[in-house]
Amino acid sequence: MGAFIRISVSTTSSCPRKIMYDKLHLPVELSEYIKRRMFDGNLHEESILAESYEKLNLRKLTVTEIPKSLREYVNVDANGNINFEQFKMVMTHPEDPDIEFVGKIDDLAAKVDTGEPVLLEAKAVGQNTWIKLITKGVQEATPYYYEQVQMYLYMLNSLGIPVTYGYLVVRNVDTKGRMYDFRWFRINADYNVVKNILDRFKALKPAYTKITGAAMLDTETAIEEIKQLQVPFADPDLPPCELCIYRDYCYPPVQTEEDVDENQVKFIVERIKQLETEVALTKQKMKEIDELKKQLKELLPDKYEKEFEDIGVKVKVTTSVKPNYKWRDILESLDSEFLKQFATTKTTKYLRISYK
Ligand code: SF4
Known about the structure:
By secondary structure, this protein is of the alpha+beta class. The chain folds into two domains: 5-250, Lambda Exonuclease, Chain A, CATH 3.90.320; 257-331, no CATH class. It is 44% helix and 18% strand. The N and C termini lie far apart (63 Å).
């Protein structure tokens, strides 16, 4: 038995780390760039699909062309044409009922001449990804998009829609000039790719179970465990990392001296200086209080209770005896190999401020 994994095919087709981060409900702060690109993606999707119909000679799929069992899950217009906006697919891993894939296709159309169904997946990409796509092809440039389409094709077939290929239709949103660069990449269904994905998630199960277990104890440990997982992409400036909400966890931003706002530093340091002076005075008073309490304890027996009504104070002394462990001695006497099992790494940043 292990943990239950639900994988969203659209966003996590090949990033096991992201699936795990999702489970930790980590705080994420989206950069302006990521926010803009996400907004751009939604903004472009509809028009990319519309352009695809025209360029690829497609028509809307009609309700009679999909199995009866699916008809209640799609929106159908007055002409019987299907809109797949609300169509969510759920598929259990064929070999492990604890792994579930959830996916939502962008569109399924039909060829005007033959009527064969064609899957459409729209992407709005930046210049870097665009260049990679046109020079290397979709499988090498963006394997996560390729796998995403393969999974959708497989899921549609398992629901009884015999679709053998799809198009990744791509718009370069960084295009200079009036018309966007637009290109489509045909992707034929390949069960071997799907089998690899299914096997990969099955193999991930023990690590996933371990991480969800670690997350119950300590988020920092769970994050470190997640970062140990190997992923096939290593460039934070390319998809899927480029727009990933967990980018800062995988690739913590490196700050340089130039990034520092000195006025802000000065403001904070001055306030620290002022507060530390106040604390020093308080500390002196605390020390005096401790001394007086010590004197009082010496004056009083092990058990004592008295209310001084005229000054509104009650004094009570109780005594308890507890074992006092010498932790330093205990740790030194333990075998270092034994201790290593409990060790985790922790990064500490030190700050030292000195006043003249
Ligand atoms: S930044 Fe990249 S490697 Fe890290 S979770 Fe996101 S997609 Fe995965």
